[in-house]
Amino acid sequence: MERQIKSQVQAAAEAALSRNAQDLVALDVSGRLPLTDAFLIVSGSSERNVGAIADAVDERLGTEGVTMKRREGRGSGHWELLDFGDVVVHVFLEEDRQYYGLERLWRDCPVIPIEERAAAS
Fold first, then answer.
1. How far apart are CA 10 and CA 87, in angstroms?
2. CB 116 within 8 A of CB 108
3. Is the pLDDT of residue 28 over 50?
4. Which one, of 3, 11, 9, lies nearest residue 26 by Cα?
5. Rounded CA gap, 65 and 54, in Å?
6. Which of 37, 38, 54, 116 meets the CB 3.0–4.6 Å disulfide criterion with 30?
7. What pTM did the predictor assign?
8. Contact of 77 with 50, CB cutoff 8 Å
9. How far from 28 is each of 4, 76, 77, CA to CA, in Å?
10. How far apart are CA 61 and CA 109, in angstroms?
11. In 1-121, which residue ranges form alpha helices assigned H by DSSP?
12. At residue 16, what are phi and psi to the nearest 5 degrees?
């Protein structure tokens, strides 16, 4: 996986953690999907938190020159999808994340490590 994509995943993770995201999982889906290379899946503790996490990720990657191609679910508070092309970020309300089980669907994809500095942010 390209260093640039890992860097985008790391930046998105740091932004999500800055808004108290929980249970971050990054997956390399490049071998299974032609449309994107990585998923970052995170949970928010409330509907408001889901929106705040998504906004923080959007802002952080934007400042790094990564253009968002589309955003779905804004304002729903349950699941927001942020598509940056190479990286797709899924921000779930905890119960919805369990229901949809994306980690189960993509369990055969390699995990992308998120560096410890993200957890300290």
1. 11
2. no
3. yes
4. 9
5. 17
6. 37
7. 0.92
8. yes
9. 13, 27, 26
10. 24
11. 3-18, 47-63, 94-100, 102-105, 116-120
12. -65, -45
